[in-house]
Amino acid sequence: MSTCEHCGAETPATTRARRYCSTTCKLRAYNARKRAAYAEAKAAGADPSAAARERYRAAHPDHRTAADRSTDRPCSSPGCSDRTWARGLCFRHYRAEARAVGKTWAVHGGGRRGHQGRAKLYGVPHEPVNPRAIFESDQYQCQLCGKQLHPHTSWPSPDYPTLDHIVPLSKGGPHTQDNVQTACYRCNVIKGARLATGRGVEITTPRPPA
């Protein structure tokens, strides 16, 4: 019977001596050693992070960062020496090429957008819409399956209340109060970009039993 080096508890008898009673104690001891070494290096005025980076670079001399690799490939556009952004072009020429072929998502740089941002991309009318006002007008009831939703349900719960466009933005529907309704997250995902004739549209996929 041996004793754990971290917590002092007795370790179970095995064919060989064990330094720790569990994996948890082993990890805690490892973290404690790392913290102590970091504090010692800081007290001596050294930068532990910089030292770790130098050790890694010494062990991996062929490693290069993404920025290092991009400087090796200048823009393929004639007369441009900027570094590559995507598809062999710098950001300026890549954006111009994307605009020329109608890739509006690339022109605006991608990322998350709200409903009004998507409406601008599709070129449809839009106006500020208060989701809570729509939810309250529908009494927090999903207009696709009829289930009663709770206002404090958080994403990504299937019953999370969301705004659904009756006529999807991709089909030319506007982002206005007359074209939005309350829908649970599950029904909204199932409906996708399909057309809807009005409130109360049925989703044929059965809801799993509670």
Description:
The structure is a single chain. By secondary structure, this protein is mostly helical. It has 3 domains: 2-59, no CATH class; 66-107, no CATH class; 115-191, DNA Binding (I), subunit A, CATH 1.10.30. It is built from 8 helices and 4 strands. Strands 1-2 form a two-stranded antiparallel sheet. It has a two-stranded antiparallel ribbon with strand order 3-4. The two termini are 51 Å apart. 13% of the residues are buried. The model is unreliable at 105-112 and 197-210 (pLDDT under 50).
Quick recap:
This protein is mostly helical. It has helices spanning 23-43, 48-59, 66-71, 91-100, 104-107, 115-122, 131-137, 185-191, and strands at residues 2-3, 10-11, 161-165, 180-184.
Structural class: mainly alpha
- Strand fraction equals 5-15%
Number of strands: 4
- The number of helical runs is 8
Fill in the keyword field for this structure.
210 residues; mainly alpha; DNA Binding (I), subunit A; 3 domains; two-stranded antiparallel sheet
Secondary structure topology:
Elements: E1 2-3, E2 10-11, H1 23-43, H2 48-59, H3 66-71, H4 91-100, H5 104-107, H6 115-122, H7 131-137, E3 161-165, E4 180-184, H8 185-191
Antiparallel strand pairs: 1-2, 3-4
